[in-house]
Model the fold of this input.
Amino acid sequence: MAFTLKFAGALAGSVLLASAAMAQGYPDRSISMVVPFAAGGPTDTVARLVAEKMSADLGQQVIVENVGGAGGTLGAGNVAAAEADGYTILLHHIGMATSATLYRNLAYKPLEAFEYVGLVTEVPMTIVARKDFEPADMAALVTYVKANADTLTMANAGIGAASHLCGMLFMQALEAPIVTVPYKGTGPAMTDLLGGQVDLMCDQTTNTTEQIKGGTIKGYAVTSPARLDIFPDLPTVGEAGLGSMEVGIWHGVYAPKGTPAEAVERLTASLQVALADPGIATAMAELGTAPSPAADVTPAALQAKLEGEIARWKPIIEAAGVYAD
Amino acid sequence: MDLISNLTLGFATAGTPENLLFCLIGVILGTLIGVLPGIGATATIAMLLPITFQLEPVSSLIMLAGIYYGAQYGGSTTAILINMPGESSSAVTAIDGYQMARKGKAGTALAVAALGSFFAGTVATLLVAIFAPPLTIIALKFGAAEYFSLMLLGLVSAIALAHGSILKALAMVVLGLLLGMVGTDIYTGTPRFTFGITAYADGLNFVALAVGVFGIAEILKNLEGDQDRSVLTTKLGSLWPSRLDLRRMVAPMLRGTALGSALGILPGGGAILASFASYTVEKRLSKTPEEFGHGAIEGVAGPESANNAGAQTSFIPLLTLGIPANPVMALMVGAMIIQGVVPGPNVAAEQPALFWGIIASMWIGNLMLIVLNLPLIGLWVKLLKVPYHILFPVIMAFCSIGVYSVNVNVYDLYAVAGFGLMGYVLMKLRCEPAPLLLGFVLGPMLEENLRRAMILGRGDPTTFLTRPISATLLVMTLIVLVVVLLPQVRKKRAEVFSESD
Amino acid sequence: MNTINKTDAVAGILFILIGLAFGAQSLGMELGTSLRMGPGYFPLVLAGILILLGGCILASSFKSIDEEMTAHAWRGMMFILPAPIFFGLTVRGLGFVPSIFFTTLIAALASLKMKPLAALLLSVGVTIFCTLVFSYALGLPFRRFGPWLSFLGM
Done:
């Protein structure tokens, strides 16, 4: 049924499109929202939520196109090189900032190749450990890790992944050189944490919430500035004296450089409408996050965020000495 | 009993007219797209996934599961009919299935594949329903060392995939392992063998490799000498399996189901091994191992059952832990999250209707698949009568679209051409592609787990022997090596003196 | 029976060459130690094994009978292999519809049995079918007509 509906809708849409193409302003056809990661991942989920609401507001389909690969730089590169007509946009996360340092020969310049549409959401992270890990709370964890750093292992989902970034921050804040164990993606890393094969991980609430609630892993702290509603008992890293570890996986929407100003304005307005939708707030709350406040859903806020984050991560990544190219 | 009430709930959920309809649509769509040559299960699901997002959570997942089974079966169909596997598992089916098709027994091969899949699906679904939680505990005992030993066992089994020279088969496995190394090293971020092309940073695309070395090489072979021949070498035989065929498939089907169910539980890539392992077992146990590679019915029945059983039980880590075991499961997790159901260890307790509904729909999906496909076999087989010079341009068009749609990466298309040439040259040199494919899928996992085991074991190589499961697997590897190699060596010696094939 | 099996000899040499190519590249990477393997370690070991196996295949070729090689599919290679490459080069620029049309047409030329008119008809048919199924029904995010054709007013 969905099939035939879609089919009929598409046919009808294309007929309408042809006749109305000249009469209407932007957008007069569907917009492709590139997600530089595979379908089904956390970023893809955010994109699909937003795309659905934006489609309703714009009166045109916003189609999510997954162009995964090379830590998000392939998809971002595609959009940077795409026609700047407002019909190709990019939804990317914090990787936009870290890839500027992690990849030493990017095909595009992150600060010069895009127009900014706005911030979307900032997903907090959680410090977690295998369920039988000794320390009882965050304070005990800090002492324990400092004392036993060389016997501990910390999983991450690969270079440049959220868990890798947070892991670097964790080790830097505690000055503890823990052995890093990289995996191909969050799934296998989480499996080994559940099985007790590795000790620690720091990952987005999207991936950890249900496991912490289910008692299959142990939660220690959240990396957001304030405690989260879903985990009132977990302290923030700031409370634990690790303020430098505050981090969120922020997502932003971009358009290729040179996209007409009115198209960008329309997109920003539409993104604001989409994020104000109560349905989005509910869906995001399930994932342990929330839509960015309207003040941040602006080109200026996204630009400031990107510039600030590139500057923040450059020394951290260079100190770790690990590059992804 | 809990199980009864749970299953009742499941069937009540999956059995609503609406959900039955979505399951049916999923199975039909999956089969129709999956049966297009060059478009395997991965590509099919990537294409059809967005359709399911508009539905209710339960309906959406039921439909997705239907698509998954349909696509898998569709993939096996193209593997059998035109030697075009879109998945590592159907690559095994292609070995003997395609030979059966050439001998006019395509109908039998398809029917055997369908019956084997259905039987395996039924048993594995029951296993999932009864034993999911305890099986999960076993799965979690598998760490890097265990996976490494398991992969090693799988590799050794690969020798049996070849029906020609054992040396060449080994060389093809190693070549596959090396091709699997292409891409960014996950431990250091160093790009390896990518020629500086960022598009290959995540490795070469499996679909591109499979389509190239199997499908395109086969097309080129059929175009040799400017006189294209048809796929069929003899007249089309009976559509249905004979009584003898059915009797021959029972034991392989049972063994395949057991093997596949066991391997599918392991989230770190066990299901990939299922069909390969089953093929090895069947070839070893067969009284006529020389038939393998030339259209042995056991070589289709075993792997197809193993594959479907593995596909079923690989839902276990997803359902009990919320952890996807393969890219398809990852897509299902994505679909769940979009529906507002965040999968985790509590899904069964918090969403019993969803959990049991999916399990019930697995079986319903398998049932629909067989009801739908047995009558269609006649139609598929007729495809073989299409003149080859009309068939292959169509195949090229579909496989271009299929390969491209997996990652929207044009370099994958260039890789298809490269692998097509490579596959053709190797075929001319009498090197078979199946061991290459197994090497390719196992290579990255083998290295990854070896290095991870060494990191976790603090650089102590005895970690492989001191961990009991790993040690057991290594002993099994040794036994398989001896059992597989001995007769081959003897046969080789005999061959030197007699005429080679 | 002292003839050389040319098939095996060529295969052996090919595997040795591939092994050497991978091996040489691996040496350019950090090798590490057996306990702490670098990115080059595992590929180097594999390349070594491949060279060894290639050597064995080459050696065995001297002891067996030569087999006749079948004709080469030159025309097939000339048209089949460029088809997916053409699709890759043009799917974004020309757009899905013209790109799949020419891809099918190029592939169709690989057979001598295919008359020009039949090839054209087949390509049109495949194009219509693929556009309806993949672009309209499944809604895959491909542009039907790409920017290279914008001068046509599409």
